[in-house]
User: What shape does this take?
Amino acid sequence: MPKITFVDHAGKARTVEGVVGSTVMEAAIRNNVPGVDAECGGACACATCHVYVDGEWAAVVGPAQDMEQDMLDFASDVRATSRLCCQIRITPELDGLTVTTPARQG
Ligand code: FES
Assistant: This one.
């Protein structure tokens, strides 16, 4: 199973196993990763699953689509590598993915 590492705003890393076909948000929730609230349950309607994709992974993960980009407008401290992790589908290629959760969600 692809491993995904979540780094919190203080630099503490937690590596969890993701299920191919599910989302990075679901991996976080299943493993009680702090900083990912996912209040809307993955409907792209809350922006509480905001993460920063690590630089080297940004091209692999790809950019946000239009609906996600609209929702990111409601998140704070949005950066070029911001994504809503409920919209990142886990594939085998994402093994080793690292994302950082924003301080506001910590
Ligand atoms: S869980 Fe609500 S936008 Fe991702």
User: Anything to note?
Assistant: The chain has one domain: 3-100. The beta strands are 3-7, 13-17, 50-53, 82-84, 97-100. Residues 25, 38-40, 42-49, 71, 84, 86 surround FE2/S2 (inorganic) cluster (CB under 6 Å). The first strand starts at residue 3 and ends at 7.
